[in-house]
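Query form — protein Basic amino acid/polyamine antiporter, APA family

QUESTION: What is the three-dimensional structure of this chain?
INPUT:
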Amino acid sequence: MAQPEKTQGQLVRSLGLFSAFILTVSSVIGSGVYKKVAPMSSELLSADLVLTCWVLAGLITLCGTLSNAEVAGLLADSGGEYVYFRKIYNKFFAFLFGWTAFTVIRSAAVASIAYVFAHSFNALVPLPELPASWAQISLGGVFTPFDNFGVKTLTVLLIVGLSYNNYIGLKFGEGLSKTVTIIVVVSIFLVIVLGLTLGGGSWANFTTPATGYVHHAWTEGAFIQSIFAALLAAFWAYEGWSATGYIGGEIKNPNRNLPLALVLGVSFVMLVYISINFTYLYVLPIDEIIAAHKSQNTIAAVVVIRHFLGEAGALFIALLILLTTFGCTNTTLLGPPRLYYAMAKEGMFFKSASYIHPRYNTPSKAIFIQAVWSSILVFSGSFDQLTDMLVFAAFIFYGATTLGVFVLRVKMRDVPRPYKAWGYPVVPAIFILFCVALIAITMITKPREALIGLALMGSGLPFYWYWTRSGARSQEPGARS
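ANSWER: The structure tokens for Basic amino acid/polyamine antiporter, APA family are given below.
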């Protein structure tokens, strides 16, 4: 007798520690390692301050990772912070996080990274553009959907293609990320070695400030705002480390392997970032890096490599950027549908997102929903606007997860912890205070990005009201099952 065809699959624990480590690294290393040194240099006008911000951003991110890893190890499951917030706070705050991840944080990350891929491709093979009369059309004086239309179209095609890649199986997507990440990391270290040995750089490049630099005391308000603006750029480069938590339900021995993958992954990325950005600033005078920032279609890493390896080197780094952003887009697409799946199972997201493909065992419809919204965001704003918006929103919830370390030490006092936050309570407290400062200063210095982020967060309130009412009605006596 033939077996009936499955109508619903299930998530499978198939990833070990190394795979989870690689996914953490590939979720983080994307466009920021090549682009963000330029806006940071333009903001600070000093190479040593730029590198200081890379170190500071890495240490702060590590503080958050060391703290959040305790929560991840204790509550590991598919859905990441959504699952954590249900147990730490309440259903509403968990929903607010999940909705914000969908509308702002993770979807904007997908759009931003894929955009840099298409932007880099355009530098090699110019893409067709619409007439200037179309490109200048704006919606509300804020959005210019037809500007850079060829780049945006390729961005959407990449999102759709890689979404299909993740649709047909986690192992396939994880294998692709692993291969790409290893190639990228080896190539970056090759650039570092060549830059420091053959780049013709000097300490004078690193120690000489840019034209127009004015020394400020560390306590001056203008200087503090510049530091935070530079940190906002650096944090985009470090963004994505928490996404590994979304696939906790598919990691072997997650209570041990998930926190280890997070801490080891972020520590490794920090080493890579400090090394490569020191190389940029050592090889090229900071004024030339700032000039790259002022040119919309120039990437700082390409300018640096072209300086000492010529056009062949520029081609190499352009191809490396394509490979890096390709791999990071793939990994960034991979995790969040598991979050939407977890929400939908509880009636807190579009019902179709709770579907698991019977053959591929992936949340196929959640992957589709994410691809559609990410594609819409591609046409809504520029790269830097999207990244500033998502970092602002992300740090609201990073701080909330870290606060959860203190809450769970009380609520789940006797539950064994496979990992305890290093430096507790000082390290978690430092990270929470920094999150508060970053959020406040971003609202002052980047009000447009902060307000759009808050508006998208607030857009989930009608959906929450509708879904909670629908859930309550379905539980009433006499309701149809």
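ADDITIONAL NOTE: The chain has 20 helices and no strands.
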